[in-house]
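Sorry to interrupt, but I need a hand with the structure work. I would like you to pick a protein and set down its sequence and fold. Please put the record directly below this note.
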Amino acid sequence: MTYSVNEALREIVRAHGGADLWHSLDAVEAVVSARGFLFTAKRRPALDRVRMRASTSEPHFTFFDYPLPGQTAELIGTREVRSTDAGGAVIAQRLDPRAAFHGLRRLVRWDELDFIYFAGYATWNYLVTPFLFLREGFAFRLLDPVPADPPGTIRLHARFPAEIPAHSREQVFHFDEQRLLRRIDYTAEVVGGWARAAHFCEEYRAFDGIQVPTRRRVLPLPFGDRPLPGPTLVAIDVHEFHCIKAGT
């Protein structure tokens, strides 16, 4: 019998905690540190144990006490990023933030709103995948494994719907024999059309029933299927992870 995309998706979602648990949540929260060559290249400070919240129902992402203590930064779908003070007053705002990624300045420096957009949509995707695939609008197909993958790996090609802010519309996800996510291949288009990367997911831990990779490392993938050994473009460590139940 041929192994189908639907069978693969069921196994993948089940391995990470299951659809029933995910649908019972309003959001997930994490405490995250992040650093790497991309931060240096864009002149942005590293993140040190920043608390973040990802909605489970829509692409809405919040950074708490960021950019400064008492402030909040938000990604609101594809349409807006903003930062607010402790009283909720808007400090800075940008509409259609992806469209702003052009011009010479962004080749060498990102401002706070640039970074809020990039880090907001990227981390939202990371924290809600693979449950993100339960949404309508995705198109999937199974690919043959690559030689570098361990035995039992499956590769899933996903085409994202337009309403989901993401690195690129087309990405490839590698799942191990237990169907845990181990690698994502994508092009970080807001960095550049050349910014192809392999994103590795490691050191899984169970938090409130959800399987979470607590160590993520992103390496250049300029061609083929084998990433370069460095530099590490982004290094992400998840220190805490909590599920926010619906109605709480």
In short: DSSP finds five helices and 13 strands in the chain. The helical segments are 5-15, 19-23, 37-41, 105-108, 112-128. The longest helix spans residues 112-128.
